[in-house]
Write a structure and sequence with these properties.
six-stranded antiparallel sheet; five-stranded parallel sheet; alpha/beta; single chain
Length: about 500
C-alpha cells in the first residue's frame, strides 16, 4: 500500500501516459490490491475506448480491442464517470466477453474507475480477479477511483490533456458532437444499452416502450449511432403532436397545390431520412388510416406524396416508440395488428426512473456537470456543487412520474437557487419536498428528511410484499433486492436502518 501512495507523490523517470508509466502503475496497483491483472483504456476522438495497456496482453494484441461508450463494464464506467465493483463480470449483463475469449482469460471480480481531470475524461483503469479468488473490498473501489483522478492530474501536468477529447457531451448534454449519452450502471439501463448496441448491428425494425421522460429518443439515437446508417441523418417526428392531415404531409411530403397553403413541393420525413434513421415517436396515437399508409410504406419501401400519383423510393432504418401497450390496443381494434408485427422486430423497454433508483445520484450529478459546462463554470475551473446526503435521500425517495426529464428539471431548479457548495433539500421545488407553511428553515429541513425516509420505507415494504415466497408468505429478500437493483447486503442494511423487521 505504501508503494501505491509513493507512486503518485514521487516524481517518476518517465512521463505520465507513456508505456513505461502505464506498466509501472498497473504493476503497483496489482501488487497493492492483490489483483491478478490490470488494464488501461483510452477514450479516442471517435468516442470509442481503445485498450492502451494490458498486463497480460502484448502491445500488438492490445490494438485489436476497442469498446463503444456504454459497452461492457469499462464502457459503462466511462459513460457514467463512476467507479464500479462487480463480484463476477460474466453475471454483469452488458459484459463484453470477446476479450476474455480471445486471450483465454476468465474475468471474475473486477473494479473499474474513470481516469478524470477536472471533469475531462481520459479513459478507464481496471483491476481484474483478486488473487485470493474473492471480491475486491469497497475500500479498493474508492482507492482506484482516487487513482484515476491522480492519474488524470499527472496526465495534465505532462501536457497530455491539452484539448478536450470528444468525451461525454452530446444529445443528453445538449449541444456537442452528436454522440448520445445514456447514464446509468443499474442492470435495467445496462440491458437497454446492450440491446441498443445489438440493434444497431441488425437491419430489423425496433420498437421502444417506455413512460414519458424515460429517454426513448436517446435509445433510438444510440441505436442509430451504432448502425450502418450512422453517417446518414437521424429524423424524428412526434406522431401525437400533429393532426392527421398535417401528419400525413409531414411523413410523406406533398406537391405544390395539393392543399391550401401548399405553395411548393415538400419532401416528407421518410425521404428526408433516406440513408439514415426515421424515428416515429408515440406511434400509438396516430389514426388507423395513417397506420395503413405507414404499413404500406414499410412494406413497399416507397411513399406517395400528398396530391401526387408518383411513388418515391426511400431507404432508411425505422425505429418506433410508444408509452402505451400496443398488444392491448391491437386487441381493442385501435392499432393495426399487421403494423404492430411489422414494427416489433426487436423490442426495448426503457425502465422508469423509480425502478432504477441507484442511477438517480449519477443522473443528478451528470445534470449538474452539464449545467456547469454550458454556463462556462467548468471551463473556469470552478467546482460544481455537490448533492448533500439529505438531498440524495429525498431524490431517491421520490416516485418521479415524469422520469429522467422531471429529474433534470428539478436539478436545474435547485442549481438556480443554490448559494452553497452543497445542494440542499430546501433548494429543490416544493413539489419534490413538501414544506410546512409556518416552519422555520431547520424544521423544514427535518420535515423534508422525514418525508423522504417515510417514502423509502413505503417503497421497500411494497417490493417486499410483491416478492413474497408463494404459499409461505415469507419475504424473499434476495428477489426484493434484485427488483430494486441493489446488492442483497445493501438491501438488508437499509431494512435495518428503516426499522423494517
Amino acid at each position: 500500500m505504501d508503494r501505491f501512495f509513493r507512486f503518485f507523490y514521487q516524481k517518476q523517470n518517465f512521463p505520465a501516459g507513456g508505456p513505461e508509466y502505464d506498466a509501472l502503475l498497473c504493476s503497483v496497483l496489482m501488487e497493492a490490491s492483490q489483483a491478478q491483472e490490470a488494464s488501461i483504456w483510452q477514450l479516442a476522438r471517435d468516442n470509442r475506448l481503445y485498450l492502451k495497456y494490458g498486463s497480460n496482453i502484448t502491445p500488438q494484441d492490445a490494438s485489436d480491442f476497442s469498446l463503444a461508450l456504454g459497452e461492457g463494464i469499462t464502457g459503462a464506467v466511462a459513460m457514467a464517470r463512476k467507479a464500479l465493483k462487480v463480484e463476477d463480470a460474466w453475471s454483469f449483463h452488458n459484459h463484453n466477453r470477446h476479450m476474455d475469449t480471445k486471450i483465454r482469460f476468465r474475468t471474475f471480480s473486477m473494479i473499474s474507475a474513470p481516469i478524470l481531470c477536472q471533469n475531462q475524461l481520459y479513459g478507464v483503469i481496471n483491476l481484474l480477479n483478486h488473487l485470493k479468488k474473492e471480491e475486491f473490498s469497497q475500500h479498493w473501489k474508492e482507492l482506484l477511483a482516487a487513482a484515476g483522478i491522480m492519474y488524470g492530474l499527472a496526465l495534465k501536468n505532462a501536457g497530455k490533456l491539452v484539448t478536450k477529447p470528444a468525451g461525454l457531451k452530446g444529445k443528453a448534454a445538449g449541444k456537442g458532437d452528436g454522440k448520445t449519452v445514456i447514464i446509468g450502471l443499474s442492470r435495467s439501463i445496462q440491458e437497454v444499452l446492450h440491446l441498443a448496441l445489438k440493434a444497431g448491428k441488425s437491419n430489423i425494425p425496433v420498437l421502444i416502450y417506455g413512460e414519458t421522460g424515460t429517454g426513448k429518443e436517446l435509445a433510438a439515437r444510440k441505436i442509430h449511432e451504432n448502425s450502418r446508417f450512422r453517417s446518414g441523418p437521424f429524423v424524428s417526428i412526434n406522431c401525437a403532436a400533429l393532426a392527421e392531415t398535417i401528419l400525413e404531409s409531414e411523413l410523406f411530403g406533398h406537391v405544390k397545390g395539393a392543399f391550401s397553403g401548399a405553395v411548393s413541393n415538400r419532401q416528407g420525413k421518410f425521404v428526408s431520412a433516406s440513408s439514415g434513421t426515421l424515428f416515429l415517436d408515440e406511434i400509438a396515437d396516430m389514426s388507423l388510416s395513417c397506420q395503413a399508409k405507414i404499413l404500406r410504406a414499410l412494406q413497399e419501401k416507397t411513399i406517395t406524396p400528398v396530391g401526387s400519383d408518383k411513388e418515391v423510393k426511400f431507404h432508411a432504418a425505422i425505429i418506433a416508440a410508444t408509452n402505451k401497450d400496443l398488444e392491448k390496443l391491437v386487441s381493442q381494434g385501435r392499432f393495426r395488428q399487421d403494423l404492430y408485427f411489422r414494427l416489433c422486430g426487436l423490442e426495448i423497454k426503457m425502465p422508469a426512473l423509480r425502478h432504477r433508483v441507484s442511477d438517480i445520484p449519477l443522473l443528478a450529478q451528470y445534470f449538474i456537470r452539464k449545467a456547469c459546462e454550458e454556463s462556462g463554470n467548468d471551463s473556469r475551473g470552478q467546482l460544481a456543487p455537490r448533492l448533500s446526503d439529505d438531498a440524495i435521500t429525498a431524490l431517491a425517495g421520490y416516485s418521479w412520474p415524469g422520469n429522467v426529464r422531471q429529474l433534470e428539471q428539478a436539478v436545474m431548479a435547485a442549481l438556480a437557487v443554490c448559494e452553497n457548495k452543497d445542494i440542499m433539500i430546501s433548494d429543490f421545488p416544493s413539489w419534490l419536498v413538501k414544506k410546512e407553511p409556518e416552519a422555520t428553515d431547520a424544521v423544514v429541513h427535518k420535515v423534508g428528511t422525514l418525508t423522504s425516509r417515510q417514502n423509502e420505507k413505503i417503497r421497500f415494504l411494497k417490493v417486499l410484499e410483491e416478492t413474497r415466497y408463494p404459499g409461505t408468505g415469507r419475504w424473499n429478500i434476495a428477489a426484493a433486492a434484485r427488483k430494486l437493483d441493489m446488492p442483497r447486503k445493501t438491501f438488508a442494511y437499509q431494512l435495518k436502518k428503516l426499522n423494517i423487521k
